Amino acid sequence: MSARNADDSGIAVIGLGRFGCHLATSLTQLGHDVLAIDRDADRVQKWSRHLDRVVQADATEEGALRQLGVVDFRRVVVAIGASLEASVLTVLALAELDVPQIWARATSDKHALILGSVGAHHVIFPEAETGERVAHLIVSKMLDFIEFGDDFAIAKVRVPDALVGRPLRELAPAERYGVMIVGAKLPGERFRYADPATVLTTGSVVVVEGNIAQVQRFAMLG
Ligand code: ATP
Questions:
Q1: Which of 79, 82, 94, 199 is in the most buried spot, having the most CB atoms within 10 Å?
Q2: Is the minimum distance from the CB of 59 to ligand 1 under 6 angstroms?
Q3: In CATH terms, is domain 3-139 a member of 3.30.413.10?
Q4: pLDDT tens readout for residues 138-176
Q5: CA of 78 to the centre of ligand 1 (A)
Q6: Nearest atom in ligand 1 to 107's CA
């Protein structure tokens, strides 16, 4: 039986640049069986010390991918960025092999369009996404920020003084600031769901959700 049918946890990562190697390492730490592929012998040698399965191959070659058993993986990530030609030809080869979930990294909108048209199912923009997130962290007082599209965001923020000392039911943050407080971490405690009876103290950290402008305004209160 092929691995595609037998075990869903395997993920192939192609391209061990900075992005690809962080991705492969995180997937391994999450308990996935990772097959890492790079055409560069030095990179392969370096990463074989840290990852279980690292092989050298030119991923634009459909035959090489087939030989490596990539066809058995349900999920393959093309983490090549700078070389547009290599990234596009690799996605094309994976599409020819009927890989069900091809994730591909794009470095521009046009690159993304091409990747989609040759068969990528998911296109990711690590540099753009990280840049945007870090910009929010720098200009606001947010401790963490995730934007979900459709003008919806979640942020981790230090509690503003105005929300300290009385139950959230009385302070009504949703009416005052337009954000929903979904979780709270009191100093020295773990994160818990927030409810109307939650009383925040100075130094608490909250997780809030709402539209981007409201979440940003809320973060500036602290
Ligand atoms: P990063 O930003 O992640 O460091 P990069 O943009 O600097 O990456 P890329 O050109 O995207 O560099 O290459 C990333 C990795 O992909 C490199 O290790 C490179 O050897 C590998 N790579 C490039 N083309 C192929 C290919 N055809 N087959 C396999 N690996 C490839």
A1: 94
A2: yes
A3: no
A4: 888 789 998 888 899 999 999 999 999 999 999 999 999
A5: 9
A6: 6
